[in-house]
């Protein structure tokens, strides 16, 4: 195991925190947005439970809920404009 000083750990953490939402971080690690309420583990978007303690995520953090939150407004937006275009008088 490699020993790292506290200063180096702090610098490494601040570097990772700055790159949290960057799509191409270059280290091959997934983006972890949510934090487990039970153990503090940073969780991925993909699963319904924590990877460290297996506690269940809150409903709004689960993949199906996030998918719904993104797709429903898009579907409503597309349906609204499709209705406008189909209801327009061509003449």
Please tell me about this protein's structure.
The protein has 91 residues and is mainly α. The protein has one domain. The protein contains 2 helices and 2 strands, in the order H-E-E-H. Strands 1-2 form a two-stranded antiparallel ribbon. A hairpin with a 6-residue loop joins strand 1 and strand 2 (42-43). The protein is elongated.
Quick gist of this model?
With 91 residues, this protein is mainly alpha-helical.
| Total number of helices | 2
The total count of strands amounts to 2
Q: Roughly what fraction of the amino acids lie in strands?
A: under 5%
User: What is the first-to-last residue Cα distance?
Assistant: 76 Å
Strand order of the largest sheet: 1-2
Major sheet details: 2 strands, antiparallel
Report the uncertain regions. Answer: 9-24
Compute the number of structural domains. 1
Helix content: 40-55%
Name the shape in a single word.
elongated
Nearest-integer average pLDDT = 74
Radius of gyration: 21 Å
- Pattern of helices and strands: HEEH
Estimated structural class: mainly alpha
Question: How are the secondary structure elements laid out?
Answer:
Blueprint (H helix, E strand, L loop, with lengths): L5 H13 L15 E2 L6 E2 L19 H25 L4
Antiparallel strand pairs: 1-2
Which key features would you list for this structure?
two-stranded antiparallel ribbon; mainly alpha; 2 helices; about 90 residues; single chain
